[in-house]
Amino acid sequence: MSDTKKTSRISFLHHSTGKNIWLGGVNRYLNKLTGKNDVQDYFRRYNKIHGTNYLISERFFPNLSPYGWKNYPYDYYNIWVKNSGDNPFSGEPTLEILSKAYDVIIFKHCYPVSKILQDTGNPDIDSEERRIENYKLQYNALKKKFHEFPDTKFIVWTPAVHVKNLISEDEAIRTYEFYKWMVGEWKEADDNIFIWDFYKYETEGELYLKDSNSSGPGNSHPGRNFSRLVSPQFCKFIVKVIESESSNIQHF
Fold first, then answer.
1. pTM of the full predicted structure?
2. 25 conformational bin, left if phi > 0, alpha if psi -120 to 50, beta if neither
3. To the nearest whole percent, how much of the chain has pLDDT over 70?
């Protein structure tokens, strides 16, 4: 692996919510007119100032075809744990593949992850049903898998959440409960997993994506102004992870 103090290869796996943050609130077709404020431009400037070689790229994961446009706990578990190995699964790279190409792997869920059903009392790691009991099993399996790659750093976003009129209060409360479990119990000290608290930025202490942070009424994508403000915070966190010798950095 490369020297993470001077050179680091970073992959950001995302869908549309992540794309808005990646673009930094700038319309991708207007970049030449408005000036760039995206993640890659941040790292170009950082490298020039600090003499580093932090190379960040992005990709949709999983793709719409053949796997399907689903990036929830089950799907990462399905691709990276259940079907791990040296060959892609349903067209998607496993961690065995990604870890050879990247020093830092960043992944996230889109806001439908917050449409969480009530637990049944019978958790099933192989279930696609969005329940906290299933999420916990899948996340624990992912954590164990990440620990198999000690030279790779993993950054996971806390869950994105819907605006208030697109989610029930019970679903929002369950999302908050999973979020608290994730940052309070799931995360271990001194391992190779880092948590970026996107939920905190979106909700500002409430249960929902604030309308002022959204793309508009009834739209749970992050808005342009929000993305412009939060994108540099995301970049700063990535740099902190790259340059840290411990995972016990300020996550939240």
1. 0.92
2. left
3. 90
